TrEMBL record:
Lineage summary: unclassified sequences, metagenomes, ecological metagenomes
InterPro entries found in the cross-reference section: 6-hairpin_glycosidase_sf, GH-type_carb-bd, GH92_a_mannosidase_put, GH92_N, Glyco_hydro_92, PNGase
GO cellular component: a single term: cytosol
Domain Glycosyl hydrolase family 92 N-terminal: 33-235
GO BP term, pick one: glycoprotein catabolic process
Protein name (database record): Alpha-1,2-mannosidase
Amino acid sequence: MYKIRFLVIVLLLSLTVLLFGGNKPTGKDLTQFVNPFIGTVGNANTFPGPTLPFAMVQLSPYIKSNKIYGFSHTHNSGSAGGGSGVKGDVLFMPIIGDFKTNTKNDFASSFSHTNETAAPGYYKVLLDDSKIKVELTTTTRAGLHRYTFPDNEQAALVLDLGSGEVSVKDEKISGYTSNNIFFIAEFSQPIKNYSITNENKIQKNSTTVKGNDVKGFFSFDVKADKPLLLKVAISPVSVEGAKKNLAAELPGWDFNLTREKAKEAWNKELGKIEIEGGTKDERIIFYTSLYHSMIHPNIYMDVDKQYRSTNGKVYTAEDFDNYTTFSLWDTFRAVHPLFTIIDRTRTNEYIATFLERYDHTGRMLIMEFAGIEGEVAPMIGYHSLSVVADAYVKDIKGYDVEKAYKAMVELANDTNRKGKPLYLDYGFIPADLKGQSVSRTLEYSYDDWCVTRLAKDFDQADDLYFSQRGEFYKNVFDTNVNFMRGRMSNFQWVPNFDPMETINHYTEANAYQYTTFVPQDIDGLMELMGGDKKLESWLDACFNTVLDPSKINVRDVSGLIGQYAHGNEPSHHIAYLYNYAGTPWKTQEMVRKIMSTLYQNTPDGID
């Protein structure tokens, strides 16, 4: 999950950095070094279609079994389930001929990757079955489609909403999906005929249809020399909000101008880091990784600053910009620290968003994805605390700092978190009472330490208390084997220990991949192991002990160098620990190996 963003930090070590910060354009076209196809094959879960930096719209093909089923307006990038499209979206598909209503296969089309083109803010593909050329570009809250149909064919578009509602009025389509995506769609040419279906049944004489499987069919008279354009704006609030977004961001039909503005927006953001040196492929890998790091989080409010919070209610952002898509278990480790260096303004906005959730739900957010109400916490820890602490110690304080501290303490003490009462009672989470016990203990301990970064300035008693909890990691370290391992409620170690096994005591990892997750106290970990030489030997074993494939039962345990699994976040810091062991040249060697073997300028180039 989100491993693509980590490479930006790694590559900064090998390329000369000329410029940080600011929003002034460099005058250079850095988009030429972005390949949106990197990561679209394999486990990286990226998408090739256009989006703007941190935008609400990510317009890209929905692909399954090597067929395109349409072009939808929201996608996740880098996380499990991302890349192909989000369920309950606004999806359009151009077709030739009559509408068939039984399954999506009736309008899916094969395609060839050789007929695809992608660049920041632009995507093009030729649909093999219909010979329709599709081009896409975007603004922050809207997508612009350009379809070139073959001559003398019946041109049509299919709208697939899934669960939701669609209305047709005055040549415009509007509605919403079950994920609170409200939309307005307009065409550059008049609709010739249309029909709306629900659960594959045509709703005769209906201009508005609501249901669990809503589709629309719209036919047009078009010529090959006059493409059909479609523009779609979305809103998390209402159709009226979508209309305002469309009027503000995409009032006309100039596809090329919209594409050029998207390119300018990307050059402005990519220009925050200018590099020299390296090969062309290395530059492409670097800037593509930087590009990927700027897709999420996403602005999540209309142009009038109205937004829908996770409690389902609508508010107006008075003094901040509201964002969403915080996959914090993935991003607290590298991408948010990167933002504190190159995007301090948005870092303030992210934390203000965290505090908005605290105001309206009673708890600072843990993880959040667009359109999903209520808490989303599929992963462990409460890593919004890490984001706030990192910003605070770097003097990024454009938010209510006292409220942030209060929210951090309350979240850290929230006993509704999985295994938290056990953690507080035992000083660790017993493996016989709760799954993922070792990983939970380690991540809770780190997050507790994050509270101390602010507590030092606010409450000495809290500082002492959370500092003690920041050392709870020691309670799951077995000095007999030099690993973090499962411990039971009788304080005995779980028997038959195998550090290679990706078993229930760890989260998407094994003991090798989690033992060194003590970023708050590497010196303390080194002391437990027996000193810097012991840490060095442990790291050598980690990188040189081959992982038995039969021990792997987690998809993201990939990109292996010995036990090191670059395919998932828990391993990402390990190569740097040689610096603490007094052998920095080994860090240099491993970082170089990771860069040169696990990242390539190819669609499957993120391992």
